[in-house]
Structures are given as structure tokens and as C-alpha cells.
Write a structure and sequence with these properties.
The chain is an alpha+beta fold. The protein has 2 domains: about 1-155, Aminopeptidase, CATH 3.40.630.30; about 165-320, Aminopeptidase. The protein is about 25% helix and about 30% strand. It contains 8 helices and 14 strands. Strands 1, 2, 3, 4, 5, 6, 7, 8, 9, 10, 11, 12, 13 and 14 form a 14-stranded mixed β-sheet that branches. α2 links the parallel β5 (about 70-80) and β6.
């Protein structure tokens, strides 16, 4: 007999929700090499599906009041994990759709843990090794969503650059122009980390406001989210660009790929520049500085992760010789 129960952080049975992935991944899986983070901002309710008293699936419903798709309200399905059984998947996803309908949400999107600041998207293949910061899951989850009537609403990809070309003449020329305008590109100050992150938070609202499905999160949530990444940051590869008046105009956040034991590889995790056309080319210039530094200490490849197929980072990755490494899909469904 199947039954679905509700739970949430702080309740006694929430640990069952947290521990459930241990039942469907090998204990040595790379899935467990980093702690799972279940964001509570926008979290409405968590569900566990039991069959004959044993947990067989889990999922969360997130209610982000600012998230819209086609100019209408959308809820999101997050933290999805399920045994490889189409009956369990159908039961859980049907329940989530019913809850969304009850809450009068026109659209349901997934997987997304509340916002694009958190884990979202399903990978659609595993022919290449996973990299650090990648959200790992079972590939059959794609079929679960498709069978439940969800359709792709966005495609993403990760590129890898093994050529490591840098210092191209046109980029060096732009770098010199920025230097003459008083632009300074510097490393993040880890001794003043919270203040640096707070400035980046304010800047993101300008840099990302037109991104697909972008919504802001609170400053406290943003600072807390990035506080746990501080231990992974090498200031050489997290760079901030400021104009002559010390206004933030761009940044790159890069981390070492701790999962790659064969070579030194860098992950270009987040990048942004001010949308004013006067700063055109700044992304290439900052990226070039990072490549120059990385090459000097033995890095031989870089991952450009999670690029939206219709986004501005596509050209940037191509210009740095990125070639396809992995592909991802985000699903959505209109709730009638």
C-alpha cells in the first residue's frame, strides 16, 4: 500500500527525507562527496512516499512568490529522488500536481529547489565524469517527468576547454583600454568576505535581472549560501572588477574541480558584468586574467558549467574554445 506523508525541517521524520538518497545510490557514489543542502527559503512542504512502510520517493514543493513563467505564477519541484519504479514516480508527481492545483498555481517547474540560486535541472547523459558543484541524480528521473506530462522549457549545457588559449590580441587590447579607464581587477578579499559577498549580492540584482527565471533571494540567505563555499575559494581565481570610483562592474567566481584526480581543472562557476554597453568585453578580459594565472600553475582545462542555450554566456564560452561536455533539461507543465 502506498501513502504520502508531509514533513519539514525540524520535524522528527524529516531525517527520513534527508537520508532517503542513501537507499538509491551506492555508498561510494560521488553523490555523497559533498553535503546536500536543502534550502528553506521558499520551501512550502516536503513529501515522502512510502510503499508498505518503506520510503520509496521524496520531493519538495517550493513556493517562490516572485517566480513567474509566461508571466504567471509557478511553483517548483525540488529535492526529487525516487526508486526506479514508474508507479512510485507517477504517484509522487501526480500528488505534486494536485497540490499545485490546490494552491492555484498555473505552472509547475522542476527540478528546482525554489530558485535558480539553488540546484536545478536534470542532466541527460553521463558519458563524461561528474565535476565539482554538479548536481548528481539518476538519469531515469527525466523519464519520470516526461511520463508525467512535463515538457522541456529550457536546455542548458556545460562546455570544457582543453586548449587553454589566452592573451589573444583583441582581448589584450580591451584589457589595456579598461586599464586606461581606471578599471581594477583584483582578487576577492577573504578577510572581508561577508562585505565582499554583500556587495556581490547587490550587484547581482542588476547583472542578472533579465536572466531566464531569475528571482532574487534575501541578502541573509545569499550570504549564508556562500559562507560554506569560502573554504573552497582560491582568491587567485575569484576576481572582482571595479571602475575608477570602486563601483563593482563585474566578477568571476571559479573553483578547483576537486572531483578531477587526473588533471588540474578549473570550474568557472559564476560570472557577471554590468549590463551597460561601455563594459562590453569585460567578461573576456577577466576570464583571460584567470586563464593566464591558471596556466602558470599547471591547470590544463576549464569547465564552463550550466550555460543557458539562449543566454549571453554561450558566445563567451565559444570564444574561450569551449566544446560540449554535458547537457541538461529543465521541465515544466501547465496545471489545469
Amino acid at each position: 500500500m502506498m501513502e504520502i506523508i508531509q514533513t519539514n525541517p525540524g520535524l522528527a521524520d524529516f531525517q527520513l527525507f534527508v537520508d532517503f538518497p542513501k537507499s538509491i545510490y551506492d555508498t561510494e557514489s560521488i553523490r555523497f562527496k559533498s553535503l546536500e543542502y536543502i534550502p528553506e527559503e521558499f520551501l512550502a512542504v516536503c513529501y515522502l512516499l512510502f510503499n508498505n512502510g518503506k520510503p520509496v520517493a521524496r520531493a519538495s514543493l517550493y513556493n517562490n512568490p516572485l517566480l513567474q513563467y509566461h508571466h504567471q505564477r509557478a511553483l517548483t519541484i525540488g529535492n526529487y529522488e525516487c526508486t526506479d519504479n514508474p508507479l512510485y514516480a507517477a504517484k509522487m508527481l501526480s500528488h505534486l500536481q494536485s497540490e499545485a492545483k490546490f494552491l492555484k498555481a498555473p505552472y509547475l517547474i522542476g527540478p528546482m529547489n525554489g530558485s535558480t540560486w539553488e540546484n536545478y535541472r536534470f542532466g541527460i547523459s553521463d558519458e563524461n565524469p561528474a565535476f565539482f558543484t554538479e548536481n548528481l541524480h539518476q538519469l531515469y528521473y527525466n523519464k519520470h517527468f516526461i511520463d508525467a506530462g512535463f515538457e522541456p522549457i529550457a536546455h542548458y549545457f556545460s562546455n570544457i576547454d582543453k586548449s587553454f588559449k589566452f592573451d589573444l590580441p583583441e582581448i589584450l587590447k580591451r584589457e589595456q583600454e579598461f586599464n586606461e579607464e581606471g578599471v581594477v581587477i583584483r582578487s576577492i578579499d577573504l578577510l572581508d568576505f561577508e562585505e565582499e559577498i554583500a556587495r556581490i549580492y547587490d550587484f547581482n540584482k542588476v547583472a542578472f535581472k533579465t536572466n531566464f527565471l531569475y528571482t532574487p533571494i534575501t541578502k541573509d540567505a545569499f550570504i549564508a549560501k556562500y559562507a560554506h563555499t569560502k573554504k573552497y575559494i582560491d582568491p587567485c581565481f575569484t576576481l572582482i572588477a571595479e571602475d575608477k570610483n570602486q563601483n563593482l562592474i563585474g566578477y568571476y567566481f571559479c573553483v578547483h574541480d576537486f572531483f578531477n584526480v587526473k588533471e588540474k581543472s578549473l570550474i568557472v562557476k559564476t560570472l557577471a558584468r554590468h549590463p551597460d554597453p561601455k563594459w562590453s568585453g569585460l567578461g573576456h578580459v577577466i576570464g583571460n586574467v584567470i586563464y593566464r594565472r591558471a596556466n602558470a600553475i599547471g591547470y590544463t582545462s576549464a569547465i564552463h558549467p550550466f550555460i543557458y542555450q539562449q543566454g549571453t554566456s554561450v558566445k563567451l564560452s565559444e570564444n574561450f574554445s569551449g566544446v560540449n561536455y554535458k547537457n541538461y533539461v529543465l521541465y515544466g507543465k501547465q496545471i489545469h
